[in-house]
C-alpha cells in the first residue's frame, strides 16, 4: 500500500482561510510546536509511512470495501454506494487516525494517550491503538453517553483503558472535550491529547484529516475502477467532521462531484439547544483552541447541543469544514432524529447492514438526494457500525419498529 500524508492547506499557522489556528494557553505553545514539528517530519518519513501502511492493511483490514446497495438503489431511484468503514477493525473510521496518533506519541516518548469520546468509537479505537503500541490510555466520556453507548465502555475497559465519567453540563461530548483538555493541561509532557476529530488547535485538524484521507483515496480508485468515472455525489455525516473530510479530500479538486455534509437537526432547528447544526445555525467563534463556526449562547459561549447520535452533538466543527462552507465547495444540509432512525432501520432491513446512528444521518440525507437526482450515483461514507447503538435504539425506538 502506497501511503501519502501530504495535502494542501492549512497555512503554516494552521489556518484554513480565517478558520483554525491555535488559541492555546502559553504553557502549551512549546508542546504544540514539538507535536507540529514531529508530525511534519514523520509524514515524510518512509519508515513511519511504511509502518502505518502495514497496520492499515494487515491490522485494520484496508482497503475497506466499496459496496453497491442495489435494493436501496432500486427503491430510491439513484445508484447508492457505501464506503464500508464500518468493516474496519474496531468498527469505524476512527482507527485510521488513532493508529497514526499513537505511533507519533510513541516516537515523541509519551507515556499516555488521553482523549474524549462521544459515541465511544474514538475511545475504542484509541484504546486499541494504545494497547498495540504499549501506552497507557485515559478516555473521558460524558455520563449520558456512557449510558447510551455502554457496549463501547466495556470494550475500552477490556482493552485496558481507564474510562473517566464526566458529570458536568449536559454530560455529553462537549463536556468530555473540556475535561480531557483540563487533564492535558496538568501534564502536557508525559501524555498527549489525541483529539478525536478534525478539531482543536493546529496541528490536529490537519493531522487527523491527513490520516483519514485514505478513505477518499481508496473510494476514488475503487469507484473509478468499477464504474469508469467519478460519483455524481459524495455524502457524509458531520459532527466534528473527520469521516467527512476523510472521504471529501480526494474529491475536492473534482468540481463535477457534489459534496454534501450532513449535520444533526435533532428535535428541530427552531428549538435552541436541541440540535447540533453548527454550520447551518452557528457563527464564527473560538473554542477548544481553534476558530470555526460555533453554536453560541447569548454571551458568546458554546451553546447547548443535542443529537440522537452521541458522536455528532458538538457545538463547533472542524475549521476546514467552515472554510469549505464559505467557499461553497461543500454543501451542508441537515437530518433530524426521526429521519436518521428511519434510515437506520431501512438499511438494516433492506441491505442487512446495521449502521451507526451517526452514519444513518448521511443515509437519510442521501435518500432525499436520490429522490431529487434519479439515475445519478451517490457515494455514502458508512463511517461506523451500529453495534454500540442497539441497546439504546431498542429501548427508545423498538416498539415503533416492531421490536418488543
Textual characterization of the structure:
This protein is α/β, with parallel strands linked by helices and 404 residues long. The model has no long low-confidence stretch (mean pLDDT 96). The strands form 4 sheets. It has a 6-stranded mixed β-sheet, with helices on both faces. A 4-stranded parallel β-sheet has the order 7-6-5-8, sandwiched between helices. It is 44% helix and 18% strand. It folds into 2 domains: 15-58 and 95-209, 3-Layer(aba) Sandwich (Rossmann fold); 61-91 and 213-401, Rossmann fold.
TL;DR of this structure?
With 404 residues, the protein is α/β, with parallel strands linked by helices.
List the helices and strands and how they pair.
Layout: E1 15-16, E2 19-20, H1 26-42, H2 46-60, E3 66-68, H3 70-76, E4 79-84, H4 95-107, E5 112-117, H5 121-133, E6 136-142, H6 143-148, H7 150-158, E7 162-166, H8 173-186, E8 191-193, H9 204-212, H10 214-227, E9 233-237, H11 242-248, E10 258-266, H12 278-281, E11 283-287, E12 290-294, H13 319-327, E13 330-336, H14 337-351, H15 357-372, E14 377-382, H16 390-397
Parallel strand pairs: 4-14, 5-6, 5-8, 6-7, 9-10, 9-14, 10-13
Antiparallel strand pairs: 1-2, 3-4, 11-12
Helix pairs in contact: 2-4, 4-5, 4-9, 5-7, 9-11, 10-11, 14-15
Amino acid at each position: 500500500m502506497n501511503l501519502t500524508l501530504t495535502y494542501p492547506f492549512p497555512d503554516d499557522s494552521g489556518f484554513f482561510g480565517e478558520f483554525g489556528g491555535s488559541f492555546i494557553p502559553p504553557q502549551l505553545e512549546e508542546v504544540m510546536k514539538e507535536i507540529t514539528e514531529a508530525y511534519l517530519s514523520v509524514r515524510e518519513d518512509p519508515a513511519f509511512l511504511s509502518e502505518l501502511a502495514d497496520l492499515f492493511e494487515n491490522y485494520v483490514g484496508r482497503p475497506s470495501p466499496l459496496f453497491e446497495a442495489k435494493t436501496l438503489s432500486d427503491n430510491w431511484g439513484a445508484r447508492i454506494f457505501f464506503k464500508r468503514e464500518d468493516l474496519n477493525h474496531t468498527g469505524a473510521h476512527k482507527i485510521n487516525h488513532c493508529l497514526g496518533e499513537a505511533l507519533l506519541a510513541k516516537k515523541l516518548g509519551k507515556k499516555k494517550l488521553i482523549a474524549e469520546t462521544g459515541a465511544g468509537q474514538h475511545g475504542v479505537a484509541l484504546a486499541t491503538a494504545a494497547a498495540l503500541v504499549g501506552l497507557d490510555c485515559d478516555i473521558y466520556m460524558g455520563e449520558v453517553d456512557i449510558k447510551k453507548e455502554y457496549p463501547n465502555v466495556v470494550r475500552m475497559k477490556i482493552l485496558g483503558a481507564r474510562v473517566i465519567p464526566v458529570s458536568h453540563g449536559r454530560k455529553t461530548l462537549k463536556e468530555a472535550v473540556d475535561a480531557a483538555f483540563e487533564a492535558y493541561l496538568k501534564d502536557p509532557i508525559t501524555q498527549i491529547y489525541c483529539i478525536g476529530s478534525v478539531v482543536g488547535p493546529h496541528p490536529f485538524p490537519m493531522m487527523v484529516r491527513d490520516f483519514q484521507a485514505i478513505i477518499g483515496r481508496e473510494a476514488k480508485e475503487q469507484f473509478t475502477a468499477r464504474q469508469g468515472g467519478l460519483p455524481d455525489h459524495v455524502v457524509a455525516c458531520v459532527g466534528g467532521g473527520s469521516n467527512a473530510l476523510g472521504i471529501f479530500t480526494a474529491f475536492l479538486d473534482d468540481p463535477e462531484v457534489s459534496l454534501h455534509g450532513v449535520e444533526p437537526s435533532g428535535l428541530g432547528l427552531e428549538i435552541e439547544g436541541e440540535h447540533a447544526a453548527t454550520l447551518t445555525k452557528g457563527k464564527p467563534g473560538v473554542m477548544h483552541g481553534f476558530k470555526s463556526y460555533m453554536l453560541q449562547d447569548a454571551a458568546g459561549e458554546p451553546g447547548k447541543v443535542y443529537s440522537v447520535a452521541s458522536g455528532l452533538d458538538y457545538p463547533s466543527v472542524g475549521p476546514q469544514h467552515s472554510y469549505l462552507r464559505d467557499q461553497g465547495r461543500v454543501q451542508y444540509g441537515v437530518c433530524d432524529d426521526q429521519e436518521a432512525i428511519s434510515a437506520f432501520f431501512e438499511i438494516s432491513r433492506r441491505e442487512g447492514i446495521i449502521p451507526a446512528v451517526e452514519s444513518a444521518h448521511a443515509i437519510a440525507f442521501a435518500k432525499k438526494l436520490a429522490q431529487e437526482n434519479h439515475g445519478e450515483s451517490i457515494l455514502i461514507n458508512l463511517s461506523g457500525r451500529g453495534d454500540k447503538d442497539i441497546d439504546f435504539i431498542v429501548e427508545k425506538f423498538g416498539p415503533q419498529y416492531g421490536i418488543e
